């Protein structure tokens, strides 16, 4: 079986076997990443959790490949503080299970100066999980560690703890370090979210270095605040296509990250900014999200936004993407797609939807949503064709939605009721 199939099936037994026996370090590294990503499903697995953690500890401590050791440490991070402490205890020869939190933090801080980079990596990751403010100083000092793998995890830990004390050090590596460390520094600044952290990120959104601009724009999507919206909207006009697309992805992500008490304000701000932007810079990235993203929240927000930002010149493109999304597995995404589609009438949409509901090979859910949209935008043609449709269609759900659409259009129908 391929790694993809093992991941899809959450086959921990075979994944652990690969981690322990594969001769290919790339396979072992990817396997460790998969095991970490599957941690939420581990509780449903028949394979013992302690054996999974034991295998990751051995890989993190003994594997000959630096990449495998790093991937195993990150996987242990997904399995929680106790799993990380098992690794650290294995390396230093001291059980940490019964030690008080402040003593653990102290021991981990001391381990930041260890000779073995794997111990420094694990210590930094563990400190980020404990979250004690009194270890920020040692962490910030370690942002200049000679090993970039350590610097990357130190930056991540600083973001988790979230204190402004680490902002100057993070800003320095944001400007000067290698790519993957810069990314972690940018994310950490966004997670800290103080005024000075946001200033550091915003200061590089117009940097000469395209990579630096992209990193900053990507991180701003984690803020969930109105302040980030204007910066991201400005990035939609960036000279780089990559930066522009990243800015749109971040705006969509920002909708998901916004706190409940600011969600409406952020949403209105984003729509207002996108309405002023060039639709050509907005529509294609949203279409790409619907076509490519596996994140439910991103796809919901992209479907919601498309109906509000697509202009006449890009209407067909938006309609195509939304029609393809009407039968989405996520009911809320398909509902948003239908609602947005009803806002984009014209360009032959009514005829396309009428042809779609008559297509017996099309998914029933897609046809149900299409009937909802026709109830919003249909005219005489819809009334005529729906009258015949409800008489001959055999599916009860389609017939019910057909009657509902007819009643909204002034035809003979059943009591209305928007679907949930």
Automatic annotation (TrEMBL):
One of its GO terms (molecular function) is oxidoreductase activity. This is Molecular chaperone. PANTHER family: DEOXYHYPUSINE HYDROXYLASE, PBS LYASE HEAT-LIKE PROTEIN. Pfam families: HEAT_2 (PF13646), HEAT_PBS (PF03130).
């Amino acid at each position: 079986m391929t790694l993809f199939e093992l991941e899809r099936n959450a086959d921990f037994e075979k994944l652990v076997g690969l981690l322990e026996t594969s001769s290919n370090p790339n396979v072992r590294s990817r396997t460790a990443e998969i095991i970490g990503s599957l941690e939420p499903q581990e509780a449903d697995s028949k394979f013992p959790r302690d054996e999974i953690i034991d295998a990751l500890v051995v890989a993190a401590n003994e594997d000959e490949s630096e990449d495998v050791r790093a991937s195993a440490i990150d996987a242990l991070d997904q399995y929680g503080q106790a799993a990380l402490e098992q690794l650290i205890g294995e390396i230093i020869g001291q059980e940490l299970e019964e030690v008080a939190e402040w003593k653990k933090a102290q021991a981990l801080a001391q381990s930041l100066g260890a000779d073995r980079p794997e111990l420094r990596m694990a210590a930094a990751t563990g400190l980020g999980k404990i979250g004690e403010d009194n270890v920020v100083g040692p962490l910030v000092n370690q942002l200049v560690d000679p090993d970039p793998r350590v610097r990357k995890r130190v930056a991540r830990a600083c973001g988790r703890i979230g204190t402004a004390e680490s902002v100057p050090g993070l800003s320095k590596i944001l400007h000067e370090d290698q790519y993957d460390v810069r990314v972690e520094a940018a994310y950490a600044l966004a997670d800290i979210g103080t005024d000075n952290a946001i200033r550091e990120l915003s200061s590089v959104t117009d940097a000469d270095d395209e990579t630096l601009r992209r990193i900053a724009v990507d991180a701003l999507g984690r803020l969930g605040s109105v302040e980030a919206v204007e910066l991201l909207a400005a990035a939609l006009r960036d000279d780089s296509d990559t930066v522009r697309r990243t800015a749109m992805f971040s705006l969509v992500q920002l909708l998901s990250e916004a706190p409940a008490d600011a969600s409406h304000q952020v949403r209105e701000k984003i729509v207002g900014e996108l309405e002023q932007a060039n639709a050509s810079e907005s529509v294609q990235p949203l279409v790409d999200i619907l076509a490519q993203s596996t994140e439910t929240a991103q796809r919901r927000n992209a479907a919601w936004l498309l109906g509000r930002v697509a202009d006449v010149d890009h209407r067909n493109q938006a309609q195509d993407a939304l029609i393809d999304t009407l039968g989405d597995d996520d009911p809320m995404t398909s509902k948003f797609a239908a609602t947005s589609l009803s806002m984009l009438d014209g360009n032959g949409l009514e005829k396309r939807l009428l042809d779609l509901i008559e297509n017996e090979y099309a998914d029933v859910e897609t046809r149900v949503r299409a009937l909802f949209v026709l109830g919003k935008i249909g005219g005489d043609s819809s009334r005529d064709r729906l009258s015949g449709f409800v008489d001959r269609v055999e599916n009860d759900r389609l017939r019910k939605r057909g009657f509902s659409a007819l009643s909204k259009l002034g035809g003979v129908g059943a009591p209305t009721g928007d679907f949930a």
